[in-house]
C-alpha cells in the first residue's frame, strides 16, 4: 500500500484546506497520515481542533502531533519539530509528503532530503509567500533566500495566486504548478440559501440596516481597524459591521469602536461555523487584509453574490477587478473605504451588477476544478516526464 503524509504547521490548515486532498490521495490508493501542531497556533478553537483529531482517527487516518512553532526565530522549537518529524519519516517510509505553510514547509523539506534519494516525492503548497509586492524588507531578507534554497529540495511547488506563480518560476524546483486556490463548493454554497430576515433578527440587525461583513483572524495582518475607522466616517447612519473571528487584537478593536463612538454598530461575533449562512444576511463583504494567498472568505462571498470592497493586494486582485465585482483600495485608505461603502449602499443597481459579476467569476475557482488539478499532480508525480 502506498503511503502519503499531509504535513502543516497547524491543525486548522489541514482541517480547513486539505481534506479534499486527503480524499484524492485515498482514492488513488494511498494510506494517508496527518502530522501538524494539534496544540497551538490554529485559527480555529482548541475544541474544534480536538474534534478534528477525533474525526481523523475515526476515518482511520493516523494523526501525529509535531510541535511546529509559529515564529521563525524559535530555532529550538523548530529543531524539536524537525527531530520528531524525522523519526516519523523513518518509521513510515512515505511515498509522498505534501507540506504546507512557511515554517512547516521548511521543516518538512529539510527532513525529507535524504528520503528523496530513496524515492519520496515532496510537494509544497505555498499558500502565500511572505515575500510579495509591498512586503516589509525584512520578509524578503528572511524568507526569500530560505524559500529559494528549499525549492531545490522540492519535487513540486504549488502556488495559488499569479504573483507567487510568476516569482516561483525562477526557483529550481523540479516542477512549478499554478492551482487557483483550494477551491470552494460553489454549487453547495449557492444552494444553501439562508433565511436572511431570521439571521438578522438574531443578530439585532434591522431590515433597513446596510450590513457589512468580514471574517478572519483578529490580527494585524487582517487589518480590520481600517473598516472600523471607515465606519465612523460613512455618511449613512444605517451601516453596521459584522465581524467574525478570534485573535489577539479583539480587545484593541473593541476599544477602538468605543473610542470612535460606534460600538453599537460593530458586532463582534467570535468564531462561527456558519459563515456561509451569515454571508446571506450581508449587503457587502469588506476585506481589508494586508497579506493573502488566495482568500477563501472572499471567494465564498463572491459565490453568495454580494459586492466586495477589498484591498489592492496579491490574491484579492486575482479575484476582484476594480469596478467589476466591487472596489479595490489601498490598505490604509480609510476615506476610500468609507466613500465606497456609501456608494454601494446608495446605488443598489450598481450593487446588483457587482453581485452578478462575482457569481459568474467565481465559477473558475470551483472545488471540482481544483480537485482535477490536484488529481493530475498526485497521479503524475512519479512519472519520469513530469
Low-confidence parts: none
Helix content, binned percent? 40-55%
- Mean pLDDT rating: 94
The total of beta strands comes to 13
Structural class: alpha/beta
Shape: elongated
Number of helical stretches of at least 4 residues: 18
CA radius of gyration: 21 Å
Distance between the termini: 22 Å
Task: Please summarize the sheet with the most strands.
Answer: 7 strands, parallel
Strand order of the largest sheet: 3-2-1-4-5-6-7
Question: Would you kindly provide a brief summary of this structure?
Answer:
This protein has 386 residues and is of the alpha/beta class. It has helices at residues 11-17, 19-27, 46-58, 75-92, 102-111, 113-116, 137-151, 162-168, 186-191, 196-203, 225-231, 250-259, 275-279, 296-304, 316-319, 334-346, 348-361, 367-380, and strands spanning 2-10, 30-37, 63-65, 96-100, 121-126, 156-159, 175-178, 210-215, 239-244, 266-270, 284-287, 308-311, 326-329.
How would you portray this structure in words?
The mean pLDDT is 94. The protein has helices at 11-17, 19-27, 46-58, 75-92, 102-111, 113-116, 137-151, 162-168, 186-191, 196-203, 225-231, 250-259, 275-279, 296-304, 316-319, 334-346, 348-361, 367-380, and strands at 2-10, 30-37, 63-65, 96-100, 121-126, 156-159, 175-178, 210-215, 239-244, 266-270, 284-287, 308-311, 326-329. A 7-stranded parallel sheet has the order 3-2-1-4-5-6-7, sandwiched between helices. Strands 10-9-8-11-12-13 form a 6-stranded parallel sheet, with helices on both faces. It contains 18 helices and 13 strands. With 386 residues, the chain is of the alpha/beta class. The longest helix has 18 residues, at 75-92.
